[in-house]
Amino acid sequence: MDRIPVRELNQNTSAVLARVQRGESLEVTVSGTAVARLVPITSTQSLLDRLVAEGRAVAPTVSGPVVLPPVLGDPAIDSAAELSAMRDEERW
Hints:
Blueprint (H helix, E strand, L loop, with lengths): L1 E4 H6 L1 H9 L4 E5 L2 E6 L8 H7 L25 H13 L1
Parallel strand pairs: 1-2
Antiparallel strand pairs: 2-3
């Protein structure tokens, strides 16, 4: 991987990007320290497809909306208010 100073990137942006477009990967340096990498985008593959191909994710087995878990308890009761009231009772 070639290194280029930020000054060169600033002065020759089109030429540097043309190199990246041709497939080169470049590290951009500031005062000799690498701060960024310019890498070509080589695939139109989706992120999920790429992660599945790398073995880092599993593709979904069903399609459609995600099933939500059941609602527990009485939705008419404000649990935060109930908890606050219980704490107030404990303090006295």
